[in-house]
From TrEMBL:
GO molecular function, one term: transferase activity
Gene source species: Fluviicoccus keumensis
Keywords: Transferase
Record-linked InterPro entries: Gamma-CA, Hexapep, Trimer_LpxA-like_sf
Entries under SUPFAM superfamilies matching the protein: Trimeric LpxA-like enzymes
Name of the protein in question: Carbonic anhydrase/acetyltransferase-like protein (Isoleucine patch superfamily)
Amino acid sequence: MIRRNPRGDIPIVHESAFVDPTAILIGQVIVHENVFIGPYAVIRADEVTDNGQMEPIVIGAHSNIQDGVVIHSKAGGLVVIGEHTSIAHRSIIHGPCWIGNHVFIGFNSVVYNATVQDYAVVRHNCVIDSREIPPGVYVPSCWKVNHETDTSQLQPVSNHAQDFSESVARVNLDLVHGYRAIRNEF
């Protein structure tokens, strides 16, 4: 469902993207080409600053926003999801946030007021709170990364983890084409 926000902004969705009919996109959301937005995802750009300003939520080309993901931003802060990036099932991305290209955010993870640089892998059930995750690092499942965390302890992404991340992105890109082909059947 595509809806206006109270300010009147309406999402812009590239014609090659697939948005599941159960997903809800509200307001100043920009979805680039070949993006997959899965069932029950909510992407909501509706809050403004004290002076009525708002930055968009941008989903980069060839990325996937999986089932039940919530993307929102406090007081109209910018949220960017880079290209070829996977946001896995039931994750929450709460801006302002910047998530780079070729990033994997695992199931049930929460990223708040943070930056996750290119080629990083954040595994399942993690919390990234007000920190920057360097490029090409691996955050193990169930880690909490905040102002007390020494991010220099994070290891580089292994070939196995990178292959997994890339396979998820490929599968979801195939889903874009498959679901677009049968779009009128549901």
